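WARN no homologs supplied; continuing
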Amino acid sequence: MSFAPEGYPFAAAGAALAAAGWVGVAMRPGGVVVIVLAAALTVLALFVLWFFRDPVPDLPADGALVVAPGQGRVIAIERVDEESYLRGAAHKISIFLSVFDVHVQRAPVTGTVEQKRYKAGKYAVAWLDKASDDNEQASLGILTEHGPVLVRQIAGLVARRIITDPSDGEPVERGARIGLIRFGSRVDLFLPAAWEVLCQVGDRVRVGATVLARQTSDVPAERESST
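OK structure emitted
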């Protein structure tokens, strides 16, 4: 198991606090309150380390399959008009990440980053529909050989930091890390309307491994002419 480097300062701070707690136990043997506090700090330090875990995904062999950009539960699948990047009808798949899920995001497809945008916003509960529009978010538009894909990282109630790794013009490989959101959050994935959705609301998905959709070669003519 590997860990996201952004978590090292938090893990170090947690370990230092836990160590201080056990020093206190050694200095006051038999102190129940001190023992409970030291144990609680140790559990907290382990949780912080576990929160920033970054498991290597088990990618499906078929390159046409779209994998989950985030880990958690699928809370919505709908047809929408996505005008910021896809510029037309799209499938929108929303994944809610609890504080117990992996919070590293990975590229759902192989392609080239055409658009990278950040928007400041609120910190409403991430499973609410309005979170997609109102919350702090970062969007990454990826152009594949079969059409455009948009990944949107959305902050949640306690999230206060969104990290997006790739830059404009940079190639990305399916399953490669593209960012991280600290603590509870949400990831929205927008796919061309012609692509086949293979997941359902309520599904538990693993980042970079669970199949969400299949690409097809039916790219809208207006998109082809504008890219």
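The radius of gyration is 20 Å.
OK
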